[in-house]
Design a protein that fits this description.
Elements lengths: L11 H6 L6 H18 L9 E3 L2 H20 L5 E2 L8 E2 L7 H4 L3 H7 L1 H28 L3 H13 L1 H7 L3 H4 L4 H8 L8 H17 L1 H21 L1 H35 L52 H13 L4 H16 L4 E4 L2 E6 L23 H16 L15 H15 L9 E3 L5 H4 L12 E4 L10 H8 L12 E5 L2 E6 L5 H12 L7 H14 L1 E6 L5 H12 L3 E3 L2 E5 L6
Parallel strand pairs: 7-10
Antiparallel strand pairs: 1-6, 2-3, 4-5, 8-9, 10-12, 11-12
Helix pairs in contact: 2-6, 2-7, 3-5, 3-6, 3-19, 5-6, 6-7, 6-10, 7-16, 10-11, 11-12, 11-13, 12-13, 12-15, 14-17, 15-16, 20-22
Length: about 600
């Protein structure tokens, strides 16, 4: 560490007048800065239950997952499975993005303040926690300059790709364990294997319960980086290999024992599925996206969705031309260091993988095959979204930025025979270049959209006298596939107080068909009501439709049917009345009591 004390030449009176400041004070200010920025970026939703982040369906999904985790703590229910949605079959939560590794620690927040507050707290922890973890790793292991570490951590936590994921995908944005895992794996203590390995196994287990996809990407990145470092410095790699492999082996054993049952449940338990519910090949980045401006930045624009990235939540690159040029200069400047060469190779490989099976430029296919074709069929990778490979470039660039700023910093003290560092003009020029590359990437608050209202009839639990134990509240429409699910939002915001069919999740296509699909398989009544909700047109309802409605309601074990605020609410209400008869307007909802009809 560089000394923070005064030089020997300072007068005694000057030294006496200077107040003593603990060395951790500056570190605390950096962390507070990260937290403040994260709170600012999520400010469009704090205390506003009528708003959701722009990818509303994903926020509803994760609010529900956080509410489920809290309920499993209170009730002691199996956290890997729930019948609160998709009644009567339930959901295999280990096979979905249940983020139990976030939901369980946030249980007090969820119980005291609700699922929305828990979700926003999780977003703040993901952004600020990731930045802080990288700051600590950089400060302790790689750079002497606190400013260099702070800038590197800031970029790792708040890069455009991180912000685009944070408003929708907690399992991807939560990367605060990644630097900690790397710190224990690459610990500079060749003789220490068991203790670091055990910690490694525990951290890997925690990460698996946050997001398995991030863990797969991390494993790939570590393997590629290790090979690159071995090529750059074979002697150092041979010295480090025994400890590295030993820790990895111990960690694999510990994590394997802890994850054996959850992984069995994921791949063979109730409501497990095979494959993926969407075509991962289509989720790739355009080559131009690497030099374009992301939406959630101070210079961001509204480029057409699907042109440069699959959707606004998958803007995993969007680094800007300035930063890429700067990164190239850093690699040339510091290229003698094996660390820099290994990082550069790792970042370049995953950037190419994010371009998918065919490289596109400005939305047009070039016919040039992408390297993703070589790995697309491998186990686990066939389920990964190619666009997210570019997220590995975020810490690569963050570390390179920190290394360059540390190299350019003015030396406080140096031996007379030490090589001279960069002069003042060079230092100022480099600092200005870094600022010019990063300022256009400064994030803006995550955009919000209107949220469907949760009827007071549900929030005040005025339904309880009408729903016996084991029965369900059927939302209208009951099944929504991958769209915004009103029933799932109602369930999350009421703490999973009732059971309901449908929901936004991935499950099997049917009892005898394990192929993955979004949501529950359609039943005729669900399809009829969803068509009315989407088109605003009231369909012709026949006696056969009414008989089918009774059969479907029995399947869902319905007690009441509830319609909240819908875009085409009048058309939907008329459709339900044609099926079930007149409903009652109760506290912000239309309610149909179907218990007598189903006896």
């Amino acid at each position: 560490m560089i000394s923070t004390g005064t030089t020997a030449s300072a007068p005694a009176s000057t030294r006496a007048r200077r107040p003593h400041r603990p060395p951790w004070t500056a570190d605390a200010l950096v962390v507070v800065g990260y937290l403040g920025l994260a709170v600012l970026l999520t400010g469009g939703q704090w205390g506003r239950p009528e708003r959701l982040f722009h990818q509303a369906g994903d926020q509803i999904l994760f609010e529900w997952m956080l509410a489920h985790a809290a309920r499993s703590v209170v009730t002691g229910q199996n956290p890997l499975h729930s019948t609160a949605l998709n009644a009567p079959d339930g959901i295999n939560l280990m096979a979905n993005t249940s983020v139990l590794g976030l939901g369980l620690p946030l249980t007090p927040v969820t119980l005291l303040f609700g699922s929305q507050a828990a979700f926003l707290t999780a977003v703040v922890c993901c952004l600020a926690g990731t930045a802080t973890a990288w700051y600590v790793l950089l400060r302790r292991r790689l750079v002497a300059s606190r400013t260099a570490a702070a800038v590197g951590g800031l970029f790792c936590g708040f890069a455009p790709g991180m912000l685009s994921q944070a408003g929708a995908h907690l399992h991807i944005a939560a990367q605060f364990l990644v630097p900690v895992i790397l710190a224990w794996l690459f610990r500079p203590a060749p003789g220490r294997v068991i203790r670091p390995g055990v910690w490694l196994g525990l951290l890997v287990t925690w990460q698996a319960f946050i997001g398995e996809e991030t863990l797969v990407f991390l494993t790939m990145a570590v393997a590629v980086f290790a090979v690159g470092y071995a090529l750059a410095d074979p002697a150092a790699a041979r010295r480090a290999a025994p400890a590295l492999l030993g820790r990895a082996g111990v960690g694999a054993v510990v994590a394997g024992l802890l994850l054996a049952y959850p992984l069995w449940f994921q791949f063979a338990g109730p409501q497990h599925y095979r494959g993926m519910a969407f075509d991962t090949y289509s989720y790739q980045l355009d080559a131009v996206s690497f030099i374009a401006a992301a939406r959630q930045t101070v210079v961001g624009g509204e480029h057409p969705p699907g042109l440069l990235a699959p959707n606004p939540t998958e803007e995993s690159s969007f680094f800007g031309a300035g930063l890429l040029v700067l990164g190239t200069v850093i690699v040339i400047w510091l290229g003698r260091r094996p660390l820099v060469r290994a990082l550069a190779g790792c970042g370049l490989l995953f950037a190419l993988l994010s371009l998918g099976a065919e490289i596109r430029v400005h939305g047009t296919g070039t016919g040039i095959p992408g390297p993703y074709r070589l790995v697309a069929g491998l186990p686990l990778l066939e389920l990964a979204v190619p666009a997210r490979f570019a997220l590995i470039c975020v810490p690569v660039l963050g570390v390179l930025l920190a290394l360059s700023l540390d190299r350019a910093r003015p030396p406080r003290t140096a031996p007379t025979d030490a090589p001279a560092g960069p002069g003042v003009p060079v230092r100022l020029l480099w600092t200005g270049a870094v600022a010019a590359a990063l300022l256009p990437l400064f994030p803006t608050p995550i955009r919000t959209v209107a949220a469907p209202a949760v009827p007071v009839f549900l929030t005040e639990q005025r339904w309880r006298g009408q729903v016996p134990t084991g029965a369900t509240v059927v939302p209208v429409p009951p099944v929504t596939g991958a769209a915004v699910s009103p029933g799932m939002l109602w369930s999350a915001r009421t703490g999973l107080a009732f059971r309901a069919p449908g929901g936004y999740f991935i499950g099997p296509s049917g009892p005898d068909d394990p192929a993955a699909r979004w949501g529950a398989p359609d039943r005729p009544t669900a399809a009829l009501l969803r068509r009315a909700a989407e088109t605003g047109q009231t369909p012709v309802v026949t006696d056969a439709d009414r008989r089918q409605a009774v059969e479907d309601l029995r399947h869902w074990r319905a007690a009441i049917v509830v319609q909240g605020d819908l875009r085409h609410g009048e058309a939907v209400r008329r459709t339900v009345e044609a099926l079930l008869g007149p409903g009652r307007a109760v506290d912000g909802a239309w309610v149909w009591d179907v218990r007598d009809r189903l006896r």
